[in-house]
Amino acid sequence: MRVEFRSDPRAEEILVRVTARERTPEVEALLARLASPPAIPAYDARGEVLLAPGEIARVYTERRRVLAESDRGTFALRARLYELEERLGGDFVRISNSELVRRDRILRLDFGVTGTIRLSLRGGGETYVSRRYVARIRKAFE
Amino acid sequence: MWKKILEHILVGFSISVAVALTVQISVGQATGQAVVTREFAARFTSEGVAALAQLGLVGLIGTTFSCAALVLQIERWSYLRQGVVHFLITAAVWAPVSLLCWSAASGWGLWIQLGSWAFTYAVIWLVQYLICRRRVAETNARIAAQRRKP
User: Fold this and answer.
1) Full domain range(s) for residue A56
2) At A24, is the pLDDT very low, low, confident or very high (cuts 50, 70, 90)?
């Protein structure tokens, strides 16, 4: 693979063009990587790792810390929740003041008798939704 | 948190007093009558003092409602728990103040005020509950529809 840079003073944003004979799995993987938001530095007792947004199931605050639950375990993040909401983009949806969930990890919502709204996650686990954010979740699945 | 509470106190008090003052002036000018009940005015040295005291009590109602709204923002509480606590806080102020300011004092007065407030509250709560339940069902339908997409 060859990487080229072309300077263009008229360019309004960065444009990455991939040229190949055909769309091979390697090209698909490259396109997916370029299109997805950049990996996020995360920390646990062993040190720093880079988490790809695709492997994060949810991001939440607990005792003033921002944590990410991923396929590789739970990690601490050094960014505020609203910053992560912007960085992670539309693949994540806010479900309460203190939590973002990856859209494709949402399995279903359960409305309890007392009005609690439980969110079941694909692959196990559950969390709770704030009533005020139900409309946002609904919109995310339009 | 304290900043938020202070904000709610100031906003609740000033809005309710502004509304009450507008009503008092409008009603007073239109009818030429006192804006406080005879029973309430009798507790004070003059009608002006009574009107001022009524404004203060209306401000207390506004402050209570504004601050009680913070209960509805406690996300770890269920809607039922939020509703019960919010109702108890608002009823504890609304019922005695409205009885004092706008009702003829009687043994049943407090219970009538409480009953009417409880009924109104229950209807609003139930409507909100049903709306939320329907939204959750709609959201589930959309999630399921997306899952079925190839």
Assistant:
1) 38-140
2) very high
